Amino acid sequence: MTIQDRADEIAADFEFLDDWETRYAHIIDLGKANPHLEPEERNEDTKVRGCASQVWMVLDEAPDGTLSIRAESDAMIVSGLIALLIRLYSGAPREEIQAFDAPAFLEKIGVTGALSAQRSNGLRAMLDRIRSAADAQPVAD
Q: Is 70 a catalytic residue?
């Protein structure tokens, strides 16, 4: 499944959510279902800078060149935003991650419109971390 296919599924989910409060509740529910990282994975190397909340993100490269993303936050809404990003990007090829305009997509489905400036900066920092990992050269064997 491509990132665009995933984005279309997410957009369909959000299409029925009429207002920000309903979207907010849905995002929080997504965050509640997001698996936790192991305690040792929550460290300075995995911490995402620029987030008002504590956010840790683990990005692993699979043998086929796709990126696996796992992340956790201590804030419910941020956990939900993480769950959205994982659903969108985890398991995707680097080229697709680099090519997809996540900020425009998140704006289109009504996620970013009501976020505070701090939450918006944190979301941007998480997206930057994912794009940076996608931009990195694959590790040679």
A: no
